[in-house]
Amino acid sequence: NKSNTLLGIRFHNGVNRMGISYKKLWKLLIDKDMKKSQLREAASLSSSTIAKLTRNEYVALDVLVRICAVLNCDIGDIAEVKLDEQ
What we know:
Blueprint: E1 3-6, E2 9-12, E3 15-16, E4 18-21, H1 23-31, H2 36-42, H3 47-54, H4 61-71, E5 80-83
Antiparallel strand pairs: 1-2, 2-3, 4-5
């Protein structure tokens, strides 16, 4: 198992292991007293996209931009890149 580090990011076999977290999005919805269903309607999101967000899976950038437009925020306010600590 070949492992290298570049700028503090660990790479395994030449691939860095990262994930995405939308925990900030859910906290922001709570602060704005908004339900997922209201966000889905306001941002024209499909139920499968909401499911992906709930499971911290990747979604298209335009989805995140639409969410930001609805919530009047920046992408960093709703998503966070998580580096794998393994």
